[in-house]
Design goal:
This protein is α+β, with helices and mostly antiparallel strands and about 450 residues long. The protein is about 30% helix and about 20% strand. The chain folds into 3 domains: about 160 residues, FAD/NAD(P)-binding domain (3-Layer(bba) Sandwich), CATH 3.50.50; about 110 residues, protoporphyrinogen ix oxidase, domain 3, CATH 1.10.3110; about 130 residues, Protoporphyrinogen oxidase, mitochondrial, domain 2 (Polyamine Oxidase, Chain A, domain 2, Alpha-Beta Complex). About 5% of the residues have low confidence.
């Protein structure tokens, strides 16, 4: 019997396995795929090695930065360009995201950068928040309902929907304020208005950027985690698929049908059924990366990128990151070229349940593997859609003849219908911790520490 079996070689599995082995446990890590890291890895576009998935991490906790320091990457943790991002409203207007906001909720409703988005009438309605009794909206079940009651529809639709909705890929009416904005209700009651509550939360936040990255890409975390696991003796098995995950054992099968039972004192797993990767009711993300030779983009016309209202007319992308503006190290590596990352909501069944949803592959054929990077022809349907959206969002013509390379990758969110773990199995990863590298890393380390302390 081994000490711990970890099922899943994404970041959560790597972090947990590394910490456990460093603490003296004998660890076997089982990953059904051919590579480690999950969606934290690289792909090469026009000769540039780029992050395939996440390219930054939230700094609301220091979980990722502390891990980076332990892995020897502390000197390479970097902040993004301070110009910040813009947004596009439902009616296609573009403006910088207001500086005093939180998830799009303005801390100063009559500030010029807020009025530029919501207009004078919207600003006056939002300012009424200061006259309302603090209990109004305090018990709202969603972030959308809270904002609607305190500041009105214009703030909700023009600011909170593109900002909070863009961050969490969910309409604010489906976001729990206690999860996405901890302390906001209490601050509302204490400060007497939502605007003052936002300012109070911002004043208590750690100084600096809300996100950070790593020079050379977030994928460097995986490189160092794998190196540490080798040093500490983690036994990695690539290829075997877990067919049964129990409290004290994991059963696996290889492609040639070889079956094995791995008894263990503890089992950690990212899902109850690792074989399920595309349940029909799961939404996901398609990321299209363009590398372009477009000198007109040198000025960063939309800062570090755009968040887009889901009903913005004529644009299907839900967000655009101007990566070579956001990350100076990448601009240096790109040598005058520009890297644009456009993200789209996808449905594996092709049902456009929400405006802008696309098939994962964009052309009606099934994808080969979740997380696979596929080349894009700038003149095909996917490339044409991406260049058209980039043009609309950046205000600069991005044409096919300027595209030096393009790729697309899609992945799905956690399959909650397959998330039920057997009693005693410790859940890690997106299914248990939610999306976001910071939360996933923190939860995986907590789980490992509990095992080591037991």
């Amino acid at each position: 019997m081994t000490d711990v079996v970890v099922v899943g070689g994404g970041v959560a599995g790597l972090v947990a396995a590394r910490d456990l082995a460093k603490g003296g446990a004998h660890v076997v890590l089982v990953e059904a795929g051919a590579r480690l890291g999950g969606m934290i890895r690289r792909h090469t576009v026009a000769g540039l090695d780029l992050d395939l998935g996440a390219e930054s991490f939230a700094t609301r906790t220091d979980a990722v930065e502390r891990l980076a320091i332990e892995l020897g990457l502390g000197n390479d943790v970097v902040s993004p360009d301070p110009r910040g991002a813009w947004l596009m409203t439902r009616d296609g207007r573009t403006a910088p995201i207001p500086q005093t906001g939180f998830l799009g909720i303005p801390g100063s409703p009559m500030a010029a950068d807020v009025l530029a988005v919501i207009g004078q009438g919207g600003g006056l309605r939002a300012q009424m928040d200061s006259l309302l009794p603090s209990p109004i909206g305090a018990r709202a079940q969603s972030l959308g309902a809270l904002v609607r009651k305190r500041m009105g529809e214009r703030v909700l639709d023009d600011l909170v929907v593109p900002v909070a909705g863009g961050v969490y890929s969910t309409h604010p009416d489906q976001l729990d304020p206690d999860r996405v904005a901890p302390g906001l209700r209490a601050a509302l009651q204490r400060e007497g208005s939502l605007a003052r509550a936002v300012l109070a939360l911002r004043s208590r936040a750690t100084a600096g950027s809300a996100v950070q990255g790593i020079r050379g890409g977030i994928a460097r975390l995986v490189d160092e985690l794998v190196a540490d696991m080798t040093t500490y003796g983690v036994e990695v098995r690539l290829g075997p698929r877990a067919t049964a995950i129990e409290r004290f054992a994991v059963e696996t099968v290889t492609a040639d049908g070889t079956r094995e039972r791995l008894p263990a004192q503890h089992v950690l797993a990212s899902t109850a059924d690792p074989a399920r990767t595309a349940a029909p009711d799961r939404t996901g993300i398609e990321l299209v990366t363009l590398v372009v030779d477009q000198p007109e983009l040198d000025a960063g016309p939309r800062g570090t990128g755009m968040l887009v209202h889901p009903d913005a007319d004529g644009v299907r992308a839900k967000a655009l990151t101007h990566a070579t503006v956001k990350w100076p190290w990448l601009a240096e590596a790109a040598q005058g070229r520009h890297v644009l990352r456009l993200s789209y909501a996808t449905r594996p069944d092709g049902d456009d349940a929400s405006r802008g949803a696309t098939r994962p592959d964009g052309d009606g054929t099934e994808p080969t593997e979740t997380g696979t990077s596929l080349p894009v022809d700038p003149d095909d349907a996917v490339g044409t859609r991406a260049t058209r959206d980039a043009t609309a969002l950046l205000g600069v013509p991005v044409t096919a003849d300027r595209v030096l390379g393009a790729a697309r990758v899609h992945w799905y969110g956690p399959d909650l219908t397959a998330a039920g773990l057997a009693e005693g199995v410790i859940g890690i990863g997106e299914t248990s911790s939610g999306r976001g590298l910071a939360g996933i890393v923190a939860a995986a380390r907590t789980s490992a520490a509990r095992i080591l302390g037991s």
